[in-house]
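Appendix B. Raw example, untouched.
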Amino acid sequence: MASPQTIPPRIFVTAFLKPEALTLVHEALAGEDYYVADRFNPREEDKAEFLKADVAFGNVLPDWLEESTSLKWMQLESTGFEYYLGCKGLSPDLQITNLRGMFERPAAETAMAGLLGLFRGMNQLIPANRERKWSEIEVRVNLRLLHGSKAVVLGHGSVGKRMRKLLEAYECDVQSYARTSEGAELRDQKSLGDALTTADVVVCCLPNNLSTKGLINRELLARLPEQAVFVNIGRGAVVDEPALIKMLNGHRIAGAVIDVTQQEPLPPEHPLWGCPHTILTHHTGGGYPDEYNAKARYFIANLQRYKQGEALQNIISLQP
């Protein structure tokens, strides 16, 4: 255990927070030396304040982080931290923490909503409702049950484990892929490829890092049978997006639920918008009513640990 901080830290806040959550931060930092910046409109004066900070809350620009010589701890406002993997010259004493575990329930529920929407024809019925078109015959004959499906969950972290529980509640036959996490049945690309050949459902919950980037390539996607529905609530960089689009347009698989993409926001001309039987959820998968307040409370609790010299929660490593 480190010694408690004797000198009050300079704190830089750039997390995107709703007013109520920002009020929580202001109240917690009353009397502290802190500065609040707009995450979406970074200015040179903001950068100058950041470079003086000991502590930061929010996902600062990677090039700012590389220039910092005083920062000792950065609390991310996300689970993902791939934006910083290429950063150079960082102090070995710099601690970075993320929000691992905070979004597992909403992300898994988004995946389930998309799956059930496709299996039960909601992707066809909702547009038909807008057109006031009764579509019983054409929709009903193609409806499927999620119950009893064969499922592969990519990733066995907090989101992957939650996803598995939800699928098992529908009595699905579930296998999980993870290289090292205890409890996963699939450990390498060969075993994964074999499992994909009979999968009805594949849910990607993987982060973007050096071991996962491009993992779900053209060859693995080609192993999927025609009845498979592919879901991505992990990161867009994990999947060969052009190959997936080609399979969807060719009706090689039954559909997809895509929360995350390689390019975000997705531009209007992107081919994913036009793919058949595809539900795009616009990276909203982690959203829930208390999301922003929860982020603020997490930072405040970790800040107390930092000031007391206690171990921080959810320390991540940028090393391969």
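End of appendix B.
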